[in-house]
Amino acid sequence: xxxxxxxxxxxxxxxxxxxxxxxxxxxxxxxxxxxxxxxxxxxxxxxxxxxxxxxxxxxxxxxxxxxxxxxxxxxxxxxxxxxxxxxxxxxxxxxxxxxxxxxxxxxxxxxxxxxxxxxxxxxxxxxxxxxxxxxxxxxxxxxxxxxxxxxxxxxxxxxxxxxxxxxxxxxxxxxxxxxxxxxxxxxxxxxxxxxxxxxxxxxxxxxxxxxxxxxxxxxxxxxxxxxxxxxxxxxxxxxxxxxxxxxxxxxxxxxxxxxxxxxxxxxxxxxxxxxxxxxxxxxxxxxxxxxxxxxxxxxxxxxxxxxxxxxxxxxxxxxxxxxxxxxxxxxxxxxxxxxxxxxx
Length: 344
Prior knowledge:
It is a single chain. By secondary structure, the protein is mainly alpha-helical. Helices cover 90% and strands 0% of the residues. It contains 6 helices and no strands.
């Protein structure tokens, strides 16, 4: 099972260089421990975690073996930290660009909305004017038709009065003869109707021309609004496609980063295991060497002990032999004295 991955730059945490000696690391640790101790920072919720990280960094770098193992991974930690710093800079630049782009888009959106609102207001105004013009045109057309109907009725009456049937029946039924004033009055009314019809016809033509212009303007605005709506929809689809593409790229980048981190973690773990195996092999070789030296020393001491025992045994044997020889000489001397005494 792989050990817990170390991702912190302990040298940066202790504010020392990679080549700092143990005394320098110790001095920096003591200085930072006083500053970061939780008792000195009771209002900071992360004080305990920061102090524990400082302690873990000091424990790692103050131990030569742990520091040697950590230095193997430090190169990758430093490169990853530099890469993360560059990534944060790029992300900040991208965020600023995104913010500026968002600001520009919002400004363009606001301008479009203002333009659309102007067009909507213009459209409402045109529709209101067109409605009023249609009402006026209908009224003028009705007035012109009424005047035309009156002229037609007068013409019909005049034809009826001048017909042969009226001439034949006038002695029977009696016919009121028009006076010159009546004729003049009827003529004046006819002229007034003609003048009114001409004026109203002219006004009707002018209103119809105005209606045509307003209708054309309304159609232009509707076309512009439709084109703007289509453009907005197209932009929305393009932005959605771009967003989906960015999400896909972000997902791929995240997957690549995770794979890279996993690969780096695996390689670091393998390097650490290789270093551990080398250290274990070195320790085993050292233990074997010490065992051989101890065994050789034991055998030497055993030989020396055996030599001392052999020497002591030889010395004891020599002492016993000398004692036996002395006793033998004493017995011989005693026997010789007995024989001498017996001869006497």
